[in-house]
Structure formats: structure tokens, C-alpha cells
Amino acid sequence: MTQTRWSKSLLSLLGLLIMTSLLGPAVSSTASPPPKAQAILAQIAARAPDQPVSIIVQKMSGTTDVENQVIRLGGIVGNELRIINAFAAEMTAGSAVKIARSPDVRWVSLDAGVVSTVCASCIDTKNLANTYIRTIQADRVWNKSPYIQGNAIGVAVVDSGVNPNGDLYTSMGVNRQVADIRFNSDYNQSTFDGYGH
Description:
Order of helices and strands: HHEHEEHEHH
Low-confidence stretches: none
Helix content: 25-40%
Oligomer: single chain
Radius of gyration: 36 Å
Distance between the termini: 104 Å
Strand content: 5-15%
Number of helices: 6
Shape: elongated
Largest sheet: 4 strands, antiparallel
Number of strands: 4
Structural class: alpha+beta
């Protein structure tokens, strides 16, 4: 009985050794941490690591260690951005990704120019009086280039008639209704609508 236990223990140990050898030794991770950077910056660095880029580097602390790292990598340190504990810099895309791997860095992003988002051709749609505009999705084409807003576009309305109202007139008092066409055989019937359309 003692020999059976001993042989079972030996078999278990042998099985464990075989499994360990098949799995191989544990691999220690020596890879650098992923960069804390905007995805497009990492893409630029992968495609053209020597391309100069303007970046904003946000730091983890208030020290100047990161600025010194930028200078050591051949970059130029620009304006300090105290509100977000960051600074602007110019360097190659590859070096920017190296900086983004530093434990002292919170985030690195491209320094994009500030562009006005005011659209002179856009229409404020938050105060629309009805849901018809949104239903036909006209508001989606009004405020996207090429800003299709109905200029020089004719609209045909098929109805029992049109009742004259202020919506059909321009601010100069000109009627925008171009024509009235009767499609029935009753020539005595008026094109004006008595039902308030």
C-alpha cells in the first residue's frame, strides 16, 4: 500500500514536470507600457517617426522633469499651460510617443489650432415650432456643408388649393408662389383653398 502511494505521488510529480516543461518558463514582460497619447499621434509616429509635430504634454506632477526629457530627445519646450499642468512642445512624432510612455506624463495630444465653429450659414434649429422639419430631416442638411437651405429650389405642392398667407411672401412683399395650376376639368373652381391650407 505504501508503494502504491509512493508511485502515485511520483506519477503526479512527473505529470506536473511534463506540464511545466510544455508550457515553458514564465515570460517576464519587458515591453514598455503603452503610450498615454492621442491615437492619431501614435499613428503618425508609426507611419513617419521623424515627422515634426506640435504637441501638448500634460504632466502628473509640477516638476520640470518632463520638460528636460523633451529637450534630451531633441524637442523644443514652448508655453507653459498652468491650468492643466501641461506645456506645449515641438518634436518628432516618434519622440512624442516616447515621452507619452514616461510615468511622469498624464497625456500627450496634438496641439491643434483653434478654429472658429461659428457658421454664418447655419440655422438655429432648437426653436423649431413643429416637428415636420425634423421628420423630413431637413435640419440635417441645413447646417452641414454645402448648407442646402432651399435657396433657388422650387417646391411643388399638390393640394386642393393654397390659401394666401404671409409665409409665401418675402420680406420685400413679393409672393414666392410662382404658379397656380388646376388639374381638374372644372374651370370655374378657384385655386384658392377654402379649408385653410
